[in-house]
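[09:14] KT: can someone run the structure on this one? pasting the chain below
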Amino acid sequence: MTGALLAGAVVGLGLYLLSRALFPPRPGLATRLATFDAARDRELTRRPARTSPTLEKVGGLRARVGGTAARYCEARGWELRSIRADLAITDRSLEALLGTKFLLSAAALLFIPIVTGYFALLGLGMSFEAPLWLCGAFAVVFFFMPDMQLRHEARGRRQDFRHVVGAFLDLVAMNLAGGRGVPEALLAASSVGDGWAMLRIREALSNARISGRTPWQSLGDLGDELNVEELRDLAGALSLVADDGAQIRKSLTARAASMRSRELSDLVGRANERSQSMLVAQLLFCAAFLIFLAYPALMRLTTS
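[09:31] RB: done, structure tokens below
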């Protein structure tokens, strides 16, 4: 009875998804305009996605599947802000991510006949239920695995970006103390390093100079794109005290000091966590060694 109910639920869900895919609802005017603006902005700021040599053979298929999935998400008005921010800070494209997710899930489902034959060789019968559930579980895991990998990489790159922002604030304060204006101090500070984070800041400031916008507006947009709170706070502070150089210098110096203090506390916290994990591992190792030493004596006592 339970199997029949589950089968009926799966069939009903499949028919519902099929009907939604064949006859999608028409988006409203606001959704169409938002999709058009988002596509135009991405075309203006598009970066080449990094591809590994192992994916060159399936690059075309992945691009087609990812492009179809991306267009489907845009037609539904799904913004996927957190995913797009993670992709922006890791220099990847949404099409590559979606293509990888769907291809990995499809590859897991293609192993159903192989798992069934393997179960038959082991003498476990020719039922498709166990291989279907096993491959379905792997398909779900493979579907969410690129998201977890992307989130982990984006977290590390945001941490590096915050470290660069702290150094950038100190450099801007030094240039302001030398008598430069706020736009000149920002450009001079961004031209010091050649790292990827400083290059993104320099590119945002250069685009602001070309388009006629203020530098803090571009920094705020970059903070929104990469989901870096420190850049948004910096843009807000610069927009409030843009006319007072001494006030800006004091604010930037205080922000840089607070960022360094927070980074130091985070490093101390991670070091304490690793120390605790190493202590637990040592205790487990000692317990296993004691069991190894006591096992022969216990066996001799029980057998005698």
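[09:33] KT: thanks! The chain is about 80% helix and 0% strand.
[09:34] RB: yep, looked fine to me
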